[in-house]
Amino acid sequence: MKTKNKLTAIEFLKEAETTMTERGKTYDKLNKGESERSMGKTIEAFNNITGNNLKESDGWLLMLILKQVRQYSSVTYHKDSALDSVAYSALLAESLENSN
Fold it and tell me: Is the pTM of this model over 0.90?
């Protein structure tokens, strides 16, 4: 039986970068499709609807928590949740960096 190759931390980072770039091409035409940048608009809409005052970084944190809950709610490993967690962590860090 052939064993699957296990990704290293660096390989997760590279695959997350590729995934973010592809999602940007699909979902973010206004910013030249460079990478995922939909959270700002999502939070703005949420705040307008609810009257809350969340920041973009709050949205990325929420998505990161969602992926972790999904990962730990499953009886088996879910690569998509792990990969998205890497990407959302990077987007959260970028958002926090840009908010200062």
Answer: no
